[in-house]
What does this fold into?
Amino acid sequence: MTSHLGVMILFAACVSLVFGTLLRETPREELRLASRIFIGMVGGAYLVGWIMFLMF
Amino acid sequence: MSRTSRSTVRAEKTATAAVASPVNPLVVGVLAWTVPGAGHLLQGHFRKAVTFFVVLGAMFAIGLAFGGRLFPFQLGEPLVFLAAVAEWTIAVPRVVAGLAGLGGGNVVSVTYEYGNTFLIVSGLLNALVLFDALDRATGRKPR
It folds into this structure.
């Protein structure tokens, strides 16, 4: 895989899964936190990408 | 909340937190360092152990597949040294990859830096997993 977006999504999925499992105790809470971290990472990268694209 | 009930709640929290694992924290620490999730498995957290093993193992494998490099300990190159420390925080995959001759680092590959990132971050995440297992073993974190 050489797509920047694909690699970023893969990375965000792995990291968010580990943090979700680490910081919560029940599967439901773990999945919820992991989803929030994942959305934050991918959404944040998209946002920063657009800001850089429009400004520089 | 009255002072008595507040102190009761605090005492209950302390009592809950003080329940240490019957397993020796040193054994937990060494196992968690060598194999991702082994420290949690030893303490009965099967689901967490499997998640850590699969995800961190996959991250390390992806890092190698992307052409990432297994960094040597070079004191003259501080960043290389730190990358080596991070990669050695996930011991067994690092040793196995080294023995298998993987991780030479394909500098011209498009995914070279991604590979390094996956390798380094898998080690750093395993350090967090290790500390979590130790906290549970010593009773600092409720089991």
